[in-house]
Amino acid sequence: MNAHEKGHLTHAEELQILRHSTAHLLAHATMELFPDTQLTIGPATEEGFFYDSLPVRNFRDEDLPVIEQRMREISARNLPLTHKEITKAEARTMYKNNPFKLEMIDALQGDMVGLASQGDFHDLCRGGHVASTGDIKHFKLLNISGSYWRADRAGTALQRITGTAFLSQKEMEEHEQRILDAQMYDHRKLGKQLDYFSFHDEGPGFPFFHPKGKLVINLLIQYMRSLLKRTNHQEIETPFMLSDELWRRSGHYKFYQDKMYFSIIDEKSFAIKPMNCPGSILIYSDRPRSYRELPLRLNEFGRVHRHELSGVLHGLFRVRAFTIDDTHIYCTPDQIEKEILTFLSMVMEVMKKFGFENLRVGVSTRPENSMGSDEAWEKATNGLISGLTTAGIPYTIQEGEGAFYGPKIEIKMKDSMNREWQCGTIQIDFFAAENFDLNYVAPDGTLKRPVILHQAVYGSLERFFGVVLEHYKGHLPFWLSPVQIRLLTVSDEQKPYAQELLTFLLKHNLRAELDNSSDALSAQIKTAQLAKTPWMLVIGKKEASEGTATLRHHDGKQEQGLTKEQLLTRAQSLS
User: What are the sequence ranges of the domains in the chain?
Assistant: First the structure.
């Protein structure tokens, strides 16, 4: 029975089934064209699908249209897609020359495995397909990249062919338009154009923030500090580098050692922090704590370093050094739900501030590699769900996507190009308090373990900056723009009045600058537009004599005869 016969499916479920089936179609075409290729796995993804394989000779870009054409030929054959269970012995015989499939067979529990078939092509599969290859019409192969078996750099190097598929031609065209928009408004391109940040071979994966870009980062921090202050968060700062022993004790060494930077100091091994948690924990443990201090919310705009593979680095979205708006909340079990509600209220306020209104909330449950007992994980997961239920916020369960030390709530938002990003998160941690022997004195005088909540609203500030930059296509909101106002004069005669107006605006903490060039007004406007300055104040002979200015918005709309006071009131309402 195929997935379509199992009842009504949501659009997302239909799309996932289609993309999963298209991955099989890709594998089928690959084997017809390159029969000595060893297939590994080919799942559906949020953006499409991919298939990893080991070809006899590496695939080249010119192979993509050939493979895609063969996929269309197989689609036209309208082959039924079937699924059945076979014994592991049968599967091993079928894949006796494919060590990857044999490893997968051995890893599966039980004596049976699933087998999907279409014509004379077969592949190991759990099921869930369209009825026939003829149902797969709207797809496109995108690129070829490198990958590793089991995502392990020590494993076999493979090749990944990535593609996408949609249920209709209209959806496909809308997707292609989003891709064009994403290329046009790529934050790396905008960052260079607007002089916000740059990347250099001398520090691969480490962003260099220019004055304007650093100002945006500082404005993000300033805004977040104002929110955290309202709920009694206390800011701390912890060292960049701490001893190996600490990271082993926290559990990060086991899970992050391949991404950590190490250094030997005084014959002892130290690591640059990949996470901020242990430093915060050391501050908590520095003296005895009372229940009267809880919940204790220690916030840090903490700089962390992680050694990402060079192939996955991507502007501000995937870097090797970034800043997290990290809060570690030490509380009692009874205080968990209230803290979660506070976090949810704050993150919703932040998303609205930045114009992200289409949000999706997920609860990530226990991954395979994790610490602690099933009972503790169940208790923590139920705590997160209880907070969401009380807040009346719908959520989905994300099986196995939690952190190694606890489940988490993830806030995902859609931008103006309908792309989804994961930013805000809150995680419950019952294990760090045990590992570090943390206590507080309860009302009855006994020592109790606190619960630790790991909270971040932006997540990575650098990544959030990049997302916001693309969301607004470079036109940052007035309050976040490094230069909010640019004064333009028709001729040099208006420069003295323009300087007077500039001084007035700067005095009231507005970020303004005067175009001191001798360019024609049209050229000055073009320069301001290219800089994506929200406001242009145009000053001619009339404005100078009347003590006013013409406000020109970046979209070309104009408002004439505004006084200094009117401009100030309007600007302050947007700041």
Answer: 3-184, 206-471, 485-574
Phi, psi of 510 (to 5 degrees): -95, 145
Whether residue 4 is predicted with pLDDT greater than 70 in this model: the reply is no
**Cβ neighbourhood burial of 12 (10 Å; 0-12, 13-18, 19+):** exposed
One-letter amino acid at 251 equals G
Question: How many CB atoms are located within 10 Å of the residue 200 CB?
Answer: 9
Cβ(436)–Cβ(289) below 8 Å: no
Task: Select 485-574's CATH number: 3.40.50.800, 3.40.50.300, 3.90.180.10, 1.10.10.10.
Answer: 3.40.50.800
Q: Which residue has the tokens 């993000």?
A: 220
CA angle at 16 for the pair 11 and 18, rounded to the nearest 5°: 95
CATH code of 206-471, in short, is: 3.30.930.10
- Identify the CATH assignment for 3-184 out of 3.30.365.10, 3.30.980.10, 3.50.50.60, 3.50.30.30: 3.30.980.10
Return the pLDDT at 7.
53
Q: Any idea which residue has 């923590």 for tokens?
A: 380
Give 148-200 pLDDT, tens digit per residue: 998 888 889 999 999 999 999 999 998 888 888 888 899 999 999 999 999 99
Q: Which residues contact 396 (CB under 8 A, 6 or more apart)?
A: 360, 361, 362, 363
CA 404 from chain centre, in angstroms, equals: 19
Is 575 in contact with 478 (CB distance < 8 Å)? yes
Instruction: List, for residues 275-284, the tens digit of each pLDDT value.
Output: 999 999 999 9
Size (the chain), residues = 575
Distance CA 406, CA 454 (A): 10
Q: Which of 215, 231, 164, 221 is CA-nearest to residue 460?
A: 221
* Distance in angstroms (rounded) separating the CA atoms of residues 542 and 335: 63
3-184 against 206-471: fold identical? no
Task: Label residue 499 by pLDDT band (50, 70, 90).
Answer: very high
- Work out whether the CA dihedral 161, 165, 169, 171 comes out positive or negative: negative
Return d(Cα 199, Cα 365) in angstroms, integer.
Answer: 36
